[in-house]
Amino acid sequence: MAPTYSPFDTVVQDDPYPVYARLREEAPVYRNDADDIWVLSRHADVDAALRDARRFSSINGLRIEPEFWGPDAERMFSFVAMDPPKHTRMRALVSHAFTQRRVMALEPRLREIARGYLQPLLARGEFDMMTEFAGPFPTEVISELVGVPEPDRDMLRRLGMAVMYRPDDAPASTDAPPEAMQAIGALVGYYSELIAARSRDRRDDLVSALLDSTEGSDRLAPEEIVGTLLLLVGAGIETTMLLLGNAWSAGAQAPDQRARVLAGNRVDDWISETLRFDPATQAIARSTTEDVELHGTTIPAGARVLLLVGSANRDPAVFEDPDRFDIDRDTARALSFGAGRHYCLGSHLGRLEARIALQEIVAAVADYEVDASAARRIRSSNNRGFISLPTKVTGRS
């Protein structure tokens, strides 16, 4: 029987990798009529499509749900949902403000934030990795970067979760539930007010830097800054949260690798292999601008195409024994942060957050275990990870 795949199938979301293997082998150009998508699963094809912005356009967004897909996608995804020349202009202006120097200058404060969350949890010995650390920590980091006042930070995380995730019983491909649309409106309103406040009174934060970013006489309009800040809710908070949880879970399931990580300075390798083995972003959507011939099949112009990053990162043509978690692996060809002109601008921040968080944990923890029977996964068409990971830790003596 031919393989079947839908990004909305909760069975697939629980463990997509066996399905990916069949797609790569039997249906590298897969058509799902019900969801109206074409699917690419091999590393070579996903990599080529990510780099081919002319034929695989970003203008309709990165996700195929109705509330995210279409010509207005840039309102949610900013320059990530644009093609040149708009993408070139926006990315340049944002890059002037969102510099690696600005990110690296945050490191002392990030360690302070991480320790503030971790110390009581580690002292207690039992906690939920996701709700008590992996979610709050990147929310605090992005809020610190952006300039969000501390009393507002929990509210912004709740709004972001309402936008990105659907309840388990929500229909898969229907319009967004009212709560999600209300959350989007609330985020737009909040960030608009924050931008107006910074227009009157600059601070040492990203909003002020975005207001001051220029290319000649060109500068970002307030609504463009709002779009950039909305992008950070998903790209800056959500993916780091999921990366931390996926790393924690992978270590729990691979005791030999976990022991090596906890025994030595292997946090960077733990992060890199997690990004390959179980990336937070599993699928990225594109729109074809013309007919594309691939493996004897024609994908028509105007088609919705899902590029399965999670499958590409497990392609045995690139990664030997790809279903094994191995911190010694060369992960240079992993596509977890994309490729080409849309390579993730915030990759350095995501890695820094994960590195600091896991370094602080490794310094204090001799071993840990996860209650897999009580773990709960997110429900998302393109992302993979947990909303709950009950954990027990053994401290260093």
Task: Report what the structure shows.
The chain has 397 residues and is an alpha+beta fold. The protein has helices at 10-14, 17-26, 43-51, 74-77, 86-97, 100-104, 107-124, 129-134, 136-146, 153-164, 178-200, 206-212, 222-253, 255-263, 267-277, 309-312, 347-364, and strands spanning 29-32, 37-40, 56-57, 126-128, 214-215, 218-219, 283-288, 292-294, 297-299, 304-308, 365-370, 376-377, 386-388, 390-395. The strands form 5 sheets. The protein has a 5-stranded mixed β-sheet, with helices on both faces. It has a 3-stranded antiparallel β-sheet with strand order 4-14-11. Strand 1 and strand 2 form a beta hairpin. Helix 7 runs parallel beside helix 17 (347-364) and helix 11 crosses helix 13. It is globular, with a radius of gyration of 21 Å. It starts with 9 loop residues before the first helix and ends with a strand. The mean pLDDT is 92.
Q: Would you tell me the structural class of the helices and strands?
A: alpha+beta
Q: Enumerate the strands of the largest sheet in spatial order, edge to edge or round the barrel.
A: 1-2-10-7-3
Largest sheet: 5 strands, mixed
Spatial separation of the terminal alpha carbons: 55 Å
How many whole angstroms does the radius of gyration measure? Answer: 21 Å
List the uncertain runs. Answer: none
- Overall morphology: globular
Helix content: 40-55%
Number of strands: 14
What are the defining features of this structure?
single chain, 397 residues, alpha+beta, five-stranded mixed beta sheet, three-stranded antiparallel beta sheet
